[in-house]
Fold these 3 entries.
Entry 1:
Amino acid sequence: MSLYATRRRRNSLATTLAWGAAIFGLTWLLLILVALLYEGLRGLSPAVFTQTTPPPGSQGGLVNAIAGSLVMTVIGVAIGAPLGMLAGTYMAEYGRYSKLTAVVRFINDILLSAPSIVIGLFVYTLLVGPMGHFSGISGAVALALLVVPVVLRTTEDMLLLVPGSMREAAAALGAPRALVIGKVAYRAAKAGLVTGILLAVARVSGETAPLLFTALNNQFWSTDLNAPMASLPVVIFQFALSPYKDWQQLAWTGALLITLAVLALSITARALSAGRRKSK
């Protein structure tokens, strides 16, 4: 009886600690969201989407930073997503049991958890130094390097979930292996593959450190990939540290826009994943 009572007490203590930890984390998350909504919504206006970043004491918006972020993110995903999908396809379909796959998976896990500032410093050494100036294309390459490990891991995991019997059935009909992968495996894992790309976009949307080393910033409207380019994370970083109230307000509004964009991508990814599970 005493052993039973001891176990009950331990179970109650563990449950209480778990609930306390969950409430502690959720409380801080809610406080951050409330502060973000309160401060960000105050500066939200049409000018944010139509005017460029202003000098101190003047009215302006974030349109050049929004455009710069979109350009570099799209190019970064366009470069990184195909590379990640091809590598993930090799690991799941061609080299599933090879030693090379194990090595690539290990290196990819390291790259997946590597600090983004290291990626920025690497691209700075690789591109910015030889070019002699910061540029939008350097920022896009840095984001692409962050996209690759996310898409690679997701692609491998999703393709491994496709039953082998589906591939065998297609192969029995005489379909070549490339056609089996493209028409059967990819189609079965389509929702998961799209989810991986969306998660990668969400990951790079708020990255600041690699862009500080590569694209830097631009006070004016510019879509020239060979010149410094503005981006929302860098503008938020610089404006939030400034002593000017109007810049700080724009930083809060920019942070709100990024949060809403990442939230929308996360909800879309989860909706696709839920739809995939229901379809099984």
Entry 2:
Amino acid sequence: MEFAISLVAEGTLTGLMYSLIALGFVLIYKSTDAINFAQGEFVMIAAIVVAGCIDWFGFPLLVAVLIGFLFMVVFGMGLERFVLRPMIGMPIVSIIMATIGLAFFLRGFGPLVFGAAPTTINLPIPDSPIFWGPLYLKPIMLVGAGISILFLLAFGWFFLKSRAGVAMRAVADSHQVSMAMGINVERFFAVAWITAGIVALLGGLVWGNMIGVDTQLALVGLKVFPVVILGGLDSIIGVVVGGIIVGVVEALTSGFIDPMVGGGMKDFAPYVLMIVMLMIRPYGIFGRRLIERI
């Protein structure tokens, strides 16, 4: 029983860290009505920039993070201005294909500029695990979960309560109607992509510390895809609930099923969950019941 409780706690923390990256998917979907298939590559490129500034130029961590922040802001603005703005009013599938192309571009661009050697981001967080009753917790997971909760709360307030958030939702509903109502669609597109870049930076710092920094870090984006499908592509609460469910399922699978079958089920289980959800409720637990054939 204690083992199961420990797995559930670990899975919950991991799921909350998934939620942070999954928020990038939701953010772009809610503001542009398109799925950003390059969100994992955003995480990778942000982590590579920070790690490169530390390893190549010897910058302190804080300076490297600041440079990474500025890079992601400029990157988001440039992406919106030169890639996505010309697509306003075009079919959603065009934006989706652009994000897929962007993902492949970033996988080559990051290692080309900053090097392909695996490295890590050493955050000032102790490595020694914390034992709390039956629980065995890693400090980086507690920090990552805390960052996720704070950012999700702040973003939830912004999106639901602020005028800018309401405008972003209007842009997501219809680009043409928003422009007719006087909303600056380009500005809110830029805000959405910049915020997605900042989310990716936070995720890159946490996951770059846990699993290292190289092109494989982009797979985190693919790993959290079941989270957004499970919770709902347009739901902030959904990414939290979906993240926790996926994290707990992963942890329990690794603890109870993997030892019996020789391993591998941990990475497989979330996608089984995703397929089941798509079959019975394709819009997710908290998503809007809106189905569009593309």
Entry 3:
Amino acid sequence: MKIAIASGKGGTGKTTLATNLAFYMAESESVVLADLDVEEPNSGLFVQGRLHHRETTYKMIPVWNKDLCTHGGNCQTVCNFNAVLAMPRSVMVFPELCHGCFACSELCPTGSLPMTTKPMGELKHLKTGALDFIEGKLMIGEEQAVPLIKQTLAYIKRGFPENIVKILDAPPGTSCPVIEVTKDADLVILVTEPTPFGFHDLKLAVDTVRHLEKRFTVVLNRFGIGDDKVTRYCEEEGIDLIARIPNSRKIAEIYSAGGLLYQEVTEVRDAVKSVVAYIHNHSIGQES
């Protein structure tokens, strides 16, 4: 069972929901919480656990071999990401732009662009009680999030059975990293806030998950500020708005201190319980 927590923009409360949902469910069953916002993971700020595994992650990039190159220029032609620049007397490779697709290497007739490994980040696995926490984190300067997200998801797939609950804290937005996290999820929970920015980006996120044909629902964070456009939009579109987390100073203080909200704020505990009830009532992940 894979549940992706996503949002159209950052700062809406994805991590708040993901961490509180994970710890709450881990009180009664085994749960995996994965922070896949690899450019800026912060779920780990709420997890104090025993280190189980840590590894450096790598991506594959081409390296130019000038002794074999005949300067045909095919490498630049087949690269869709502008990561290879073929000049009259040399070839430049830009590792930060490379997606590791092997096209330039495989289609070079002289084999002058062999692939090699390059460190791109770190994968860390902590254990605490019934909760396994896994975090992927890019090195500073690395721009390609998708390869590390794929490796982190592969680590989870190898290490845990299909029927265990996996809560995936996705990157914000609607681009490739979000799609990589959500494309195989059984449920996508879109977290938003009742502000003009929140409403605008929620609609983008809804368009994305509908295009992916994913089951999804909405949780409204900071309820009490802004207006009711998100609520009316969900009603008009037939979208389940399954929980509201209130806006309060107490919540902000607990969150900023690294505390779990559901343990101290009744309204947050009720919201998390509503999410769990929705998951169980709709038998998420049990259809197949």
